[in-house]
Amino acid sequence: AWARGRTVNARPRVFATRNLPGGALARLAQRVSLEVWPDPGAPAREALAAGARDAEGLLCLLTDRIDAALIKGCPRLRVISSCSVGLDHVDMEAATRRGIPVGYTPGVLAETTADLAFALLLAAARRIVEADGFLRQGRWTWERRWDPDGFLGRDVYGATLGVIGLGAIGRAVAARARGFGMRVLGWSRSLRELEGVEPVELSELLAEAQFVSVHVALTPETRGLLDAAALARMREDAILVNTARGGIVDEAALAAALRGGRLAAAALDVFAREPLDTASPLLDAPNLVLTPHIGSASVATRSRMAELAVENLVAGLEGRAMPRCANPDFADFAAG
Ligand code: GLV
After folding, report:
1. Pocket residue to mutate for ligand 1, from 90, 113, 214, 222, most atoms within 8 A of Cβ
2. 37-53: b or e for each residue (b if 16 or more CB lie within 10 Å)?
3. How many CB atoms lie within 10 A of CB 102?
4. pLDDT, tens digit, for every residue of 266-321?
5. Catalytic center residues
6. Which atom of ligand 1 is nearest to the CA of 109?
7. Alpha helix (H) ranges present in the chain?
8. Neighbouring C-beta atoms of residue 220, cutoff 10 Å
9. 182: CA distance to ligand 1 center in Å?
10. pLDDT in tens, 160-191
11. Is 278 helix (H, G, I), strand (E, B) or coil?
């Protein structure tokens, strides 16, 4: 009776494009009228549009393209919350024009993603995946049970690492590198002075570093940042690691550089198009470690991301400032 005149239907409608690990969605369901896309995989474009059509809140992932047309097709939409740190899948301009705050999840996944970047760096340097395959394929023979010149890789300890992008993830990678006694060069758009990181121009970083790790967001400025010309500036004994976004590296040029021996090795967690096309030249390139976009994939971090995404969403729906709002000059924006 206390709720007279206000039924559950008065709760804001939220469409979540996927079930998320942890208890965040169950708690969200107690406060809003929640519809969760029921399939284990991402909704196709039409299903996304249909699910979001009447929603006031949209909880999405980086696999959902939230473009101007989609936003236009959702007249009641007041809040977008993406369970990701990257937002290249969201048309921020279109959202901002409509006065829609967009939440994201920076900070909570930086250490976990830095762990993966370092795992890939070590795997590529010490040829771990190749060696694992060698053993499993029954090629580890008695005569070569300890091979003086088998699987020779590169030393990580004492080498020079170039970090492209000095946000939270780049800085977390730099911290790990210092533990490995590496010299760390760093480049970012906004020149940052950081302890233990030598600020350099990008061309200098590429020319000097034995390991290069990419940690910038994908924007019009960073798309193709590591194109054929940039890759050609790198040392022939260099190893490239990308856990940021595939569009930053020219994949065809990278595959050609690896095939031509103009780059020692690479490790990629992200691709220009995901999933990776089975016809991609990367799949035939030598000395390349590949993982399927798992940078933030730890039990604890995925659940923290879901929590923060839900906090952003609820704050937006209640007209409060989101804990993490991505719209420029929008941090205090209160959705009406
Ligand atoms: C993962 O790539 C993310 O943007 O969170």
Report:
1. 113
2. beeeebbeeeebeebbe
3. 26
4. 999 999 999 999 999 999 999 999 999 999 999 999 999 999 999 999 999 999 99
5. 245, 274, 293
6. 5
7. 24-29, 45-52, 68-72, 92-97, 110-125, 128-136, 168-179, 202-208, 228-233, 251-259, 299-317
8. 7
9. 26
10. 999 999 999 999 999 999 999 999 999 998 87
11. coil
57-101 tens-digit pLDDT: 999 999 999 999 999 999 999 999 999 999 999 999 999 999 999
- The residue whose CA is least distant from atom 2 of ligand 1 is 86
Ligand 1: which of 90, 92, 109, 308 to mutate, judged by most atoms within 8 Å of the beta carbon?
Answer: 109
CA angle 305, 248, 101 (to 5 degrees): 40
Q: Which amino acid is at 88?
A: D
Q: Which atom of ligand 1 is nearest to the CA of 105?
A: 5
Per DSSP, the three-state class of 48 is helix
As a residue count, the chain comes to 336
Per 3-state DSSP, the chain is made up of helix, strand and coil in percentages (nearest 5) of 35, 15, 50
SS3 of residue 257 by DSSP: helix
**Which atom of ligand 1 is nearest the CA belonging to 270?**
2
Structural tokens at position 71:
């936003």
Q: Which amino acid makes up residue 66?
A: I
What residue owns the CA closest to ligand 1's atom 4? 86
Rounded Cα gap, residues 67 and 98, in angstroms: 12
Under 8 Å CB-to-CB from 156, ≥6 apart: which residues?
121, 122, 125, 126, 180, 182, 211
Distance 143 CA to ligand 1 centre (A): 46
What spacing in Å lies between the alpha carbon of 116 and ligand 1's midpoint?
Answer: 13
Q: Which residue shows structure tokens 């029954």?
A: 138
Residue type (1 letter), 97? R
User: Residue 185's beta-bridge partner residues?
Assistant: 162, 198
C-alpha distance from residue 301 to each of 23, 83, 124, 182, 291 (Å): 13, 11, 24, 27, 18
